[in-house]
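Worked example 4.2. Below are the chains of a multi-component assembly; read each line carefully before continuing.
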Amino acid sequence: GQSLEQPSEVTAVEGAIVQINCTYQTSGFYGLSWYQQHDGGAPTFLSYNGLDGLEETGRFSSFLSRSDSYGYLLLQELQMKDSASYFCAVRVSKNDYKLSFGAGTTVTVRA
Amino acid sequence: EAGVAQSPRYKIIEKRQSVAFWCNPISGHATLYWYQQILGQGPKLLIQFQNNGVVDDSQLPKDRFSAERLKGVDSTLKIQPAKLEDSAVYLCASSLLTGLYFGPGTRLLVL
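Applying the procedure described above to all two chains together yields the following structure tokens:
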């Protein structure tokens, strides 16, 4: 089976830094993705880690440690528009992009 | 490049009625997925197609859900008869090896 654990909620102020941790136990592992979803919207791709280490994309960074079955998403210089749900997702198939998702972390940014 | 298209965007039905959702993936994407997202949870894979063949339907409740992808392009997902617990957002996604791209979803409410 598949199991992904991430915190349910995080609240922070504008300009702060937030780290969302994700631990996983899956039958297959070919990378860790992060998706953002605003209320009423579709999940949109943020980042992908296929190998250990840090990936940086603007204000967002993602980290993976395969030996620890652990990753995190780092949101820097928080803005009000970053208020959304964030999902970690394990790519469970080598030949396609089938993803198994966590339950999501709701990030609330306050002024 | 046009994104994944879905229709309808919203649907309200009574329990025991039937409903169908339509998806048009990104042009050239051979793999198509239907996910179910219940409020407050992460997306859960229902079925995966590669061209017009089913790759994975292990989590599809086959007594009431059916899906097809004729000619390897558009896909339809049907629920018959619907139950209250089917109230959710139904997300269609398509992929190449570069990532998974979601459509806007169909929000279903079963009364």
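Take a moment to check your reading of the output against the notes. The two ends of chain B are 37 Å apart (CA to CA). The mean pLDDT of chain B is 94.
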